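Long-time lurker, first post. I've been practising inverse folding by hand and with some scripts of my own, and I keep getting stuck on stretches where the structure tokens seem ambiguous. Below is the full token string for one chain I'm working on. Before anyone asks, I'm not after the true native sequence, just a reasonable design that respects the backbone. If someone could post their per-position residues I'd love to compare against what I wrote down in my notebook.
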């Protein structure tokens, strides 16, 4: 009985046991923050590229859709392990007869939680640009 009571009162090694439980959760949480940082970096890059494409789309004479897509592709930065997609710009006219172009950029990135697959994050940004006539 005395030995059992002594073992229960002995706290040596308790910190190691607590660390063994807490460290894996902490490492996964830090890795999730890194993954989220990659997504935010890519969002900044696609927003910048979309702005550059929008600036090009507003000049006169109007550039072609291929020129706009090339400008967006050249201006993008921060794209990590995901996929970058630019659908063709959609042209239209509003009720007042003003011409516009809708630009859209999509970035999709699969994430992981070290040993387990995480969610796939998809970010889409779009802008409507009015053309000069």
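-- Answer (accepted) --
I ran through it position by position. Result:
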């Amino acid at each position: 009985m005395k030995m059992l009571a002594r073992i229960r009162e002995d706290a040596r090694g308790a910190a190691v046991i607590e660390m063994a439980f807490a460290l894996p959760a902490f490492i996964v949480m830090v890795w999730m923050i890194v993954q989220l940082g990659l997504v935010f970096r890519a969002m900044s890059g696609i927003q910048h590229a979309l702005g550059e494409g929008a600036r090009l789309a507003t000049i006169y004479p109007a550039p072609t859709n291929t020129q706009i897509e090339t400008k967006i592709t050249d201006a993008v930065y921060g794209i990590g392990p995901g996929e970058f997609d630019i659908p063709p710009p959609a042209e239209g006219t509003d009720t007042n007869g003003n011409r516009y172009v809708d630009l859209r950029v999509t970035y999709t990135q699969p994430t992981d939680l070290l040993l387990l697959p995480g969610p796939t994050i998809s970010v889409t940004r779009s802008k409507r640009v009015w053309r000069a006539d």
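A couple of notes from the structure itself: The mean pLDDT is 89. The chain has three helices and four strands. Happy to go over any region you disagree with.
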